[in-house]
Amino acid sequence: MEKINQVPAHSGFMNVRQLTVTGFLAAITIFLGLTGYGFIPLIVMNATILHIPTIIGSIAGGRKVGIVVGFIFGLFSFIRTLQAPSLLLLFAVQYNIAYDAIICIVPRILLGLVAYELYRHMKGTETIRTAVTAVLATVCHTVMFLGSFTLLVGSAYAESKGIPLMNVVNIMTGITIANGIPEALISGVIVTPIIIALRRTGIKVD
Predict the structure, then answer these.
(1) Domains of the chain (ranges, CATH numbers)
(2) Which domain of life is it from (predicted)?
(3) Where does 84-206 have alpha helices with state H?
């Protein structure tokens, strides 16, 4: 029987295996996005595990897979803000829907790239590389997402609440700690065994 990690056939933007992995992870992302299982409602924001397929895609499928799955993740996040936004993103939607789209989509696309580059440059065993990549990529995702909010609508949000901009920065820092750290740990716990299992089967699509 032929090894499944032989050179894959190419088809335009992605090879066949990349398209397969992208489709599978996109389906998971869509399921989580449509059902709401990918979002954990908190007081100020929605914590999420929707970033996990993007990280898996970047590690198992490469840069292109991670970016495409990340885009789908961001698109569903944007759609959700139009249907049931958190308190912060409700303000973003009302203030400027284009800014809301940027906040939701761009950091998720960048997540795919960041996860890929982190894994590619990480040293150590497969388990260490995967776990550290999953944790750091999740933290970077949180910082990029909240940083985008602060950069684009932070001043307007502060003005609407009658508070200094630094207070908004402090709020974002608090959310990063309260949401980002648990999300990062969960990501490491979930992503690592999945990637290890994929590698043991000989799957390599990048």
Answers:
(1) 18-201 (1.10.1760.20)
(2) Bacteria
(3) 87-95, 97-121, 126-161, 165-175, 181-200
Query: What does pTM read for this prediction?
Result: 0.86
Find where tokens 């602060």 sit.
150
CA nearest to 112, candidates 74, 158, 155: 74
CA distances from 188 to 1, 18, 155, 171, 195 (A): 33, 23, 34, 25, 11
Nearest to 77 by CA among 111, 112, 38: 38
Cβ contact 92:99 at 8 Å: yes
Quote the CA–CA distance of 206 and 204 in Å, as a whole number. 6
pLDDT, mean of residues 12-35: 84
Q: Which residues contact 127 (CB under 8 A, 6 or more apart)?
A: 192, 196
Mean pLDDT over 111-133 rounds to: 95
Distance from the Cα of residue 90 to its chain's centroid: 20
Q: Could you report the per-residue pLDDT of 129-172, keeping only the tens digit for each?
A: 999 999 999 999 999 999 999 999 999 999 999 999 999 999 99
